[in-house]
């Protein structure tokens, strides 16, 4: 099964487009990364979801992910509660479901 990392961000007002552009320009080539998506979850809140081959791939990429974060850290607000500017979690998938479209027509 795959492993996933999820990171929550809150962007400073007016910096949303710059934040999205910073991720568009990332194009990481980290071993084990299958894909990632940046999801806007509110006016200034975002969540990044990465799908990886396994947890070892995530662990190996953490230094590089931290370096990428430094490129756009100034665009982020502190999340509060001692979290800093990110709220990251990761783990192995325990269930994966692929939606299959229902047939259309007779």
UniProtKB/TrEMBL annotation:
Please list the residue ranges annotated as the ABM domain. 5-61
Q: Which InterPro entries match?
A: ABM_dom, Dimeric_a/b-barrel
Which top-level group of life is the source organism from? Bacteria
Q: Which SUPFAM superfamilies match?
A: Dimeric alpha+beta barrel (SSF54909)
Question: Mind listing the GO molecular function terms for this protein?
Answer: monooxygenase activity
Key words, A-Z: Monooxygenase, Oxidoreductase
Gene3D superfamilies from the UniProt entry: 3.30.70.100
Tell me what this protein is called: Antibiotic biosynthesis monooxygenase
């Amino acid at each position: 099964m795959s492993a996933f990392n999820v990171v929550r961000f809150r962007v400073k007002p007016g910096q949303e487009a710059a934040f999205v552009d910073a991720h568009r320009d990332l194009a990481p080539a980290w071993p084990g990364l299958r894909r990632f998506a940046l999801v806007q979850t509110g006016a200034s809140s975002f969540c990044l979801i990465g799908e990886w081959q396994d947890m070892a791939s995530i662990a190996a990429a953490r230094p590089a992910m931290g370096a990428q974060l430094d490129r756009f850290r100034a665009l982020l607000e502190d999340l509060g509660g001692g979290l800093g500017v990110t709220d990251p979690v990761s783990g192995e998938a325990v269930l994966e479901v692929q939606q299959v479209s229902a047939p259309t027509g007779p």
